[in-house]
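Weekly structure sync, notes
Attendees: PL (lead), two postdocs, one rotation student
Agenda item 3: pending single-chain targets
PL asked that the sequence for the first pending target be pasted directly into the notes so everyone works from the same version. It is reproduced below exactly as submitted, 312 residues in total.
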Amino acid sequence: MDKGNQSVVSEFVLLGLCHSWNMQVLLLMIFLILYLTIVLGNIFVIILIFTDVHLHSPMFFLLANLSFVDMLLSSVTTPKMITDFLREMKTISFGGCMWQIFFVHFTGGSEMVLLVVMAYDRYVAICKPLHYSTIMSLKKCIGLMVASWTIGFVHAMSQMAVIVQLPFCGPKEVDSFFCDIPLVIKLACMDSYTLGILMNAGNGVLTMTCFILLLMSYTYILFTVCQSSKTGTSKALSTCTAHITVVVLFLGPCIFIYVWPLSITWVDKFLAVFYSDLTPLLNPCIYTLKNKEIKNAVKKFRTFYIDFNGNI
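Predicted structure, written out during the meeting:
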C-alpha cells in the first residue's frame, strides 16, 4: 500500500451497545447505578479490611488488592460508556483508544495473576496450615502482589508494542463501547487475519496459563481435603466456592473473547460488559456473602456507625 496516499486516523467512532435513544437512556441509568455500586462497594471492602485488625491476614490483603483492581478495570471503560449514552457521535481520540487498550489489558492481566496468587494462598492455608504464617508472610504477599502488577504491565506493553505501529488510514468504526485489540486490529489498513490470530494467541497464553493453574490448584486442594475428613471437606468447599465462582465469572468471558472468539457481535458485547462491569460488581458481594470474617466486620462497622451517630 502506498503510504503517501494514507490519511492518519486521529479518532475512532464507538458504535456502543445499541442505537435506540430510549434504550440508551435506560442503559445510562442502569450502568450509572452499576458503576457507583462497584466503586462504593469495592472501596467499602478495602476500608473494612484495612481498619479491622481481625482482617489483617494474607487472604484479606489479597482480597483488598482484588477490589482495587476491579475498581480500576471498571473505571477504564464504564465512565466513557456512560457519557457516550448522552452523545449522538461517540468518538474517542486515537491516543485515548490506545490508552484504553493498555489499561484494560494491564488491569485484566494483573487480576488473572492475582487470582492465581489467591489460589496459592488458599492452597497453603488448607494443605499446609502449620507453615501458613511462615510461607505467607507480609513480605511474601507484597512480593506476589508486585509480581501480579508486573506481569500485567508486561502483558499490556507487549500488546501495545504491536498495535501502535499498525497503519490506520480509513475505517474507524469500533463495534463496541470501548476499544479492544480484536476490534481495533480489524481497522488496520493491512491484512490483519494472521496478526489477529497471533494477538489472540498472546492473550491466550496468559489467560489459559492462569486458568489451568487455578483449575489444578483448586482440584488439588479439594482432593487433599477429601482424603482427610468430611468436616474438612465442607469447610474447604465453603472457603473455595467464592474463589472458584470469581474465576469462572472473570476468566470465562476472557476465554471466549481472546482465546476462542465466537465472532458474534452481540455476544462479544455481552461478554465485554460481563467482565468489565458485572464481575467487579459481583466480587465484593460474593466474598461478603461467603465469608464469616467479613460478615462479622460488617456488623462491627454497622454497630460503630450507629453508636457514632447516636452520640452525635
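Discussion points:
- Residues 1-7 have pLDDT under 50 and may be disordered.
- The chain has one domain: 10-306.
Action: rotation student to compare against the earlier draft before next sync.
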